[in-house]
Amino acid sequence: QVRLVESGGGLVQPGRSLRLSCAADGFTFSNYAMSWYRQAPGKERELVATITSTGRSTNYADSVKGRFTISRDNAKNTVYLQMNSLKPEDTAVYYCKANANYVSVVYWGQGTQVTVSS
Fold first, then answer.
1. Are 48 and 38 within 8 A, CB to CB?
2. What residue ranges of the chain have pLDDT lower than 70?
């Protein structure tokens, strides 16, 4: 059974940091590119960051460049999102997504809430 389980969300003050984790199970993690998306209330889901299956290449939305870092540990089947200098506009439900290399297979996690507020 395929599972993507996000964790690490919560309430944090502006300027502080959080690290999200997404633990994968039920598929060959190292064959999948991984991404973090987020969806704020009343807004569409947007791509935050992507990392290739090897971890050698990453991409970020302009809104988080320089503040967020995506990484992965293929030995632990886990992808991370380190979020620094958080802003109220980063408040959203954060989802991880797995994209298979070469075939059209996608898996989504259930999401974790991040709230940035003083």
1. yes
2. none
